[in-house]
Amino acid sequence: MLNMFRHTLISIEKVDPLPTWLPDGNWHRYIIRQGDSNLEGYTIGSLAIATKYAESVAANLNERSISGKSIYAVNKKNPPESPPVTDKA
Fold first, then answer.
1. Does 16 fall in a domain?
2. Residue 32 in contact with residue 57, Cβ under 8 Å?
3. Which pLDDT value is given to residue 68?
4. In a domain, 83, yes or no
5. What range defines the domain where residue 58 resides?
6. 12-26 tens-digit pLDDT
7. Looking at residue 65, what is its pLDDT?
8. Taking a C-beta distance cutoff of 8 angstroms, is the pair 9, 50 a contact?
9. pTM here?
10. Is 60 a domain residue?
């Protein structure tokens, strides 16, 4: 049952022709599947570099799913303290 929730790289391909919104370069489009949902992303570089990047995205998403924590999210239980407010102007 855990595999149903696992993020898996299912495809990666060279983008050709490039959409007008992408700058020139060696772009690849990847798709990561989790259950019935797909995540589509773009990255630049060789096929090997793009594959390594997309696999790391999938691995990070899996880590977040397992731990319930994100390296990108703010810790809402223990937010950083705000600096003291002073009336000095």
1. yes
2. yes
3. 65
4. no
5. 2-67
6. 999 999 889 999 999
7. 75
8. no
9. 0.69
10. yes
